[in-house]
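To fix ideas, we reproduce below a protein record of this kind.
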Amino acid sequence: MSRINGASLSLAAIRAASPDRPFVVAQLGQSLDGRIATLSGDSRWINGTDALDHLHGLRAAVDAVVVGVGTVVADDPQLTVRRVAGEHPARVVIDPTGRTPGGSRCFAEDGTARYCIMARDCTLPAGVRPIILPRTGDSICPAAIVRQLFEFGLRRILIEGGSDTISRFIDAGLVDRLHVLLAPIILGSGRPGLELAPIVSVAQAIRPSARMHVFRDGDVLFDCDLRPHRDHAV
């Protein structure tokens, strides 16, 4: 296993992705027992500073960063590149019913493109571009989202959160690579990192090839290649 400089190879692979089709990477940070937050929703400082640097490196390597409205309401993320060199990616919020607070930091005007994916037209802050897509059940089809972003020239897409959003994109077979940042901490309870469609036997489990990179502060990056399981019909 390599140390922190090995993680840069994972970022280089994302930057070198073919421009002919969407390339989707998802990331989540979790504890040893697979939790991304406590039962109260507290998730601050599960992962260390090196993992945070890697997340910002991921943002700098993609064209768009995507989060669900639940993440915006709970964490109010900026979704910008601040800890590494690079340009801010376009910021995209999946919000079927228009729940995103107008003052959310991800919608702040800073010259970066901002989008809100909705099932119906709603009032948005100035400069935020609406993307209206059909709603299926409680959510919007992940494949339709990827197709629309690709049509806008956003071909390298980071699904940053939350766990429900990441799980839906994996279940839809849309994720090329999954970056799991595993912290040496045990919460013992809390919110799980992934909840995918149930399987009957272990033989049905996704078994991606993976590279591991150990960070200086003890966190471990699992860079998982999900392309054999990806639906190429996007």
Observations:
- The mean pLDDT is 93.
- The two ends are 34 Å apart (CA to CA).
- Helices lie at 7-15, 49-61, 69-75, 142-151, 163-171.
- The first helix runs from residue 7 to 15.
